[in-house]
Amino acid sequence: ERSNKPNQMGMLIGKAGAGRPLYLKFALTYLRVQGQFEKLTNQIRTLPQDFNKLVDTIFKSMEDLYGQPEVAEVMKFVALASSVGCGVRDSDLKDLCTKTPQHIISSVLSMLGDIIKWDDAEG
Questions:
Q1: pLDDT higher than 60, residue 78
Q2: Helix (H) or strand (E) run with residue 58 in it
Q3: Direct distance between the N- and C-terminal alpha carbons of the chain, in angstroms, rounded to an integer
Q4: 46: exposed, middle or buried (Cβ count in 10 Å: 0-12, 13-18, 19+)
Q5: What is the mean pLDDT of the chain?
Q6: Which element (helix H / strand E) includes 118?
Q7: Among 26, 24, 3, 22, which residue's Cα sits nearest to residue 14?
Q8: Residue 72 to residues 96, 114, 119: CA-CA distances in angstroms?
Q9: Has residue 85 got a pLDDT over 90?
């Protein structure tokens, strides 16, 4: 029996950027965190085709939810840690990001999911 429901997986892998595993990783993480079951088909449909535009969409969404200065503060430390080849601990970010409430730091890290390397374990 065939369903009239759209094939969500087909819609996602049909995106021009879906040939890049990183595109799929970003898209799936974004949908996991921001997706709403009732709106998921439309959210997939409106994902940008291009990887760079997808990243812009993700950051714009974080800025809309948590504020541009707060997201920028968290991301500067994430970028710094990445540039020296190490992860960053959640607890370290909470110490470094003095202007950003801890729940926003946790939310941004959750949104980034496994896209970036970070470690919430102590030690």
A1: yes
A2: helix 51-66
A3: 54
A4: exposed
A5: 85
A6: strand 118-119
A7: 24
A8: 13, 19, 19
A9: no
Residue 3 has pLDDT above 70, yes or no: no
Length of the chain: 123
The predicted structure's pLDDT at residue 123:
37
How far apart (Å, rounded) are the C-alpha atoms in residues 63 and 33?
Answer: 15
Cα angle for residues 14, 15, 17 (degrees, 5° grid): 130
Tokens coding 5: 């429901």
Return the structure tokens found at 70.
């707060």
> CB neighbours of 111 closer than 8 A, spacing ≥ 6?
29, 30, 33, 34, 58, 61, 62
Separation CA 85–CA 56 (nearest Å):
23
Q: Does the pLDDT of residue 121 top 50, yes or no?
A: no
pLDDT digits (tens, 9 = 90+) for 97-108: 988 999 998 888
